[in-house]
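[agent] plan:
  1. take the single chain provided in the ticket
  2. run structure prediction with default settings
  3. attach structure tokens to the ticket
  4. add a short note for the reviewer (M.T.)
[agent] executing step 1
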Amino acid sequence: MGAEKYFFRYTRHVKSENSKRPPGICIAGSGSPYLLRRRRKWGDQLRHLVKANDRGKISDLLVADFLVKLNYEAHLGTDDQSVGPRCIVAWRHRRGTKHKMAGATQFYTGTTRDSQVDTLPDIANGTDMVALISTMIPHVLEVFEKMRGGNTSATVDRDRINAELDRLPADPDDTLR
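[agent] step 2 finished; step 3 output follows
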């Protein structure tokens, strides 16, 4: 059995025409102005943590915990409250590091790791696809179970599914539900 391969799509951002090295750290989102004003406070420490992680000296979660502290600091320091207290830290490992896995995610509330999270949110054209699929799957599984029991004419109850879908919010709240 060979090693698994992982592929990632990315956009390369280069600092200038003459520079071939991408920036070491990129920040985006409404909290970025706040964090950029304070980057001397955390920038070197983050680079040090990432390098130590690449060498296998510290865990992925230690780096994720540091990043979530930055998010929470931006949450507290952004006047328009556009940065929420909940955060998802996602990472991937560079080739040539000690890591065997491609990467992972960790969800947080404040600076506390969430333990009961199933999947990343997936919003398509304003629709919470996770909520949509989570609503429909039990009905499909019910039909499969009936078919396994010999009922080959089993079908989903569309009215029941539509009633449950109608109860889903049309506008997202803080939990995207």
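[agent] step 4 note for reviewer: Strands lie at 86-92, 103-109, 112-113, 123-124, 127-128.
[agent] ticket updated
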